[in-house]
Write a structure and sequence with these properties.
2 domains, alpha+beta, Nonspecific Lipid-transfer Protein, Chain A, 19% strand
């Protein structure tokens, strides 16, 4: 999504009382929070009835990396900087870096110049499945679907730092055909 389109959509949501801008961030209003059960209910319904696996042309590595960046919790790394290099050989953009600081996570599209602590190499579709919660990161590595290399103390903390998509529990339940 272009910055212009994102700005237009955020402005629209703000004008209609669904988000407020505070200290450089957008936060949901109570009206927005009341929509949460309906939106996640639609996600569950879609997983059960409407949507299959995404087609390769629907997978966008940049969007996925922004989502992952927003879900990284720095706390498991104990207050030190950690750099995670992600290589996606089958994507149009193949290299990304997450610089995880104690109170901030940055997504870099060029090498940030710090020593890399961990590397994830994975096909784009596998990373999407990890993000959606369909695959566990370490299980995907054990099965050879992706490769994890780097410092052991970082690799053991990596799964705890990666918070999954907020729709993961709903999608899992929808795919399992379980009632709400």
């Amino acid at each position: 999504m272009s910055r212009a389109l994102l700005s237009k959509r955020l402005d629209h949501l703000e004008r209609h009382g669904l988000i407020v801008r505070s200290e450089g961030r957008y936060l949901p209003t109570p009206a927005c929070e009341e929509l949460r059960p309906m939106l996640f209910g639609l996600a569950e319904w879609g997983a059960r009835w409407a949507f299959g696996e995404p087609r390769p042309d629907e997978l966008d590595p940049v969007v996925l990396m922004w989502w992952i960046c927003g879900g990284i919790d720095p706390a498991p790394f104990g207050g030190r900087r950690v750099v995670v290099h992600v290589r996606v050989p089958d994507a149009r953009r193949t290299r990304f870096w997450f610089v995880v600081e104690p109170h901030d996570v940055s997504l870099c599209f060029t090498d940030p110049g710090y020593e890399v602590d961990a590397t994830i190499e994975s096909p784009l579709g596998v990373l999407y499945q990890v993000w959606e919660g369909m695959l566990e990161l370490l299980a995907a590595a054990r099965d050879g679907r992706l490769t994890l290399t780097g410092r052991r103390e970082v690799l053991v903390r990596l799964p705890a730092s990666l918070r999954l998509s907020p729709v993961t529990p709903y999608v899992r339940r929808g795919r399992a055909g379980l009632p709400a």
